[in-house]
Amino acid sequence: MPTVSRRPARVFALQLLYAMEITGEAPGYCLPAILEGNPVSDDMQRFGMKLIDGILERREEFRNTFLEIIPDWSPERLSTIDKIILQIAMTEMLLADTPIKVILSEAVQIANKFSDEDSPSFVNGVLQNFAEQKGML
Predict the structure, then answer these.
(1) Where are the alpha helices (DSSP H) in the chain?
(2) Which of 10, 18, 55, 68 is the most exposed place for a label (fewest CB within 10 A)?
C-alpha cells in the first residue's frame, strides 16, 4: 500500500505558525487566510493541527532544548522559519509515528524551500543532535 506524504501538513503547520508568530494572534484567527492561500485536505489539516498543538504545549521545553543543542546561539537569533521548522520536526519525532529519517529528510527539504541556503544543513545538524539526545538514533 503506498504511503501518503505528510509534507502538505508540515507546510500547513509552518505557514500557520509563521502567521501566528508575525501577527501575535491565535490559530483560529490566522487559519482562514492560510487555508485560502493553501487549501489542504482534512487529514492533512488534522495532522498539521496535531503538530501545532504539540508545539504550543512544548514551547518552553523547545526553548531549553535549543539552548542545550546550540549553546552559542540564543533562540532569539534563530530565524523564525528555522525555529518553526525545528519545532515541527521535534514535535513529530516525539509523536513517534513517523520514522526519524523521514522526519529529518522532510525538515531539510522544507528548509531548502522556505529558508536561506545555510538552513538545510543547520536544521539537519540540530535535529540530528536532538534525536541523538533523545536516544532516537
Answers:
(1) 7-23, 27-37, 42-57, 59-69, 80-95, 100-114, 119-133
(2) 68
